[in-house]
Structure formats: structure tokens, C-alpha cells
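Obj: model holo form, ligand = nickel (II) ion.
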Amino acid sequence: MGLKPILFVPDPLLRKMASPVEEITNDIKQLLDDMAQTMYDAPGIGLAGPQIGELKRVIVMDCSRDEDGDELWQMINPEIIQIAKETTTLEEGCLSIPGHNADVTRPAWVDVRFTDINGTEQQMKAEGLLAACVQHEIDHLNGVLFIDHISKLKKNMIWRKVLKEVRHS
Ligand code: NI
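Output (holo C-alpha cells):
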């Protein structure tokens, strides 16, 4: 219960495929609340199950940046059902790759279907930062990191620094 340790690259769990949640048990609800707490504490705007070593298809997000209050999303089995043809580029970072950011180009909006914490199926149309965030978090459920979306040169540059940091920690 409470805060969970966040895994960092090159932890192999971050490259694994997460499994769908079959049933919304109290354990799953607790997990989603722990994830929200861990995300706010970090602080970050999104967190996916695999980042705390839980290979389940669950994500939490809050991209409101305290502008008009918290806007916490807790999603179970999120699935992108429609994506924009147009793309947009935003700077991304990741709690599992601390200290490294890069511009990532993704579809400008997406429609997402998910089950909420009460077991109700919902849909969300995400634009702007939230669209980038939900795509980034769903990527985590498939073992994909934002550095997989950038140039090989930039990725290698970040990777070299990451490995150096790992050796020194
Ligand atoms: Ni991330």
C-alpha cells in the first residue's frame, strides 16, 4: 500500500508486454490508487503498471498541471480505437528515464476505450498533452519507451548517458 518504487531503464520489466486485467478486484483498485499516489509524489503526469513492476494493463495520468484542479485518469485495459492522421510534436520525459527529455512526434489526437475503476467501460477523446501522455503510457504496456520514437542518433546519445549513470550508481 502507498508509494511504490519506480523502475528505471535498463530494467528488463520495462520491455515486457503487460497482461489484460480480467477482473476488477480490490487489489486492482488499490494498485491504481498506489500508482496515482506514486505519480503525484514523483512528481509525474503519467505512470503505467510495468513502471512499478506490475505487468498489468493499468495506467494513471493527470495532465492538468494543477491549472484547474486535479484531473486524475485511472484506466484499466486502455485501448486506442482511433488515431488522428495529423501529427504533433511535444517534448516528452519518463519517470523511468529520469533527466532525459526528447521531442516525440505522435498522432495529434486519439480515441481511447478503457474500463474505469468502477468497472464501467468508457471512451475518451484525448488532444494536446493528454493525447501524447495516453499514447506514452499505453506504449509502456507494450514494452515501448518514448526513446523508441526518436532518431537512432538521439536514442543512442540518451542510452550512453543512461548506462554511464547506471555504472556510477
Ligand atoms: Ni514513461
